[in-house]
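Handout, page 2. Input:
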Amino acid sequence: MEIVEEHRQTEYHLVVFGVPLIERRPPPKPPSHVAPEEAGYVRQLFKVIAEQLWAPVSKCSDFANHARMRGLFERSRLTFYCAEGLKELARDQMADEAYFDTLQQEFADGLHYTYIAAHPSGFEKLRCTIESAVWLQISEHPLKPLVTPNNRAGICHHLANDGHFHWCGT
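Output:
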């Protein structure tokens, strides 16, 4: 028991013994303004929205009067931050952000054929990829019990943010 108690103090205890993770905090809310760490996927969303509106989009006010596109943008930010919460959990409670990275890679691999399929628009590519992510079977990953539909959609935005996914063009 002393050895187990000593091991409990290490960063590996939760993963090795399968002890449930500490209760997950609610995901962070998106800030009122786009943060610098969101720049990659936000640029991607602006391209999707511009394609839908047939007009240039370089800032949120360019589509403020279009409820559908504003909803897409706000929902995307919400899910990005849900996945960000999962990333923080991996970093803080599992002591290794790489757990999130391996989960993200599993999504990239599992969504490959949906992502590379021919899509009539960037919006459809985004929609189909996220829809597939919501239903994607994932392995017995340590984070699996905590992965919600919002996390799944958010992981797609993380992949776009990191330059792995491009909704319009390449």
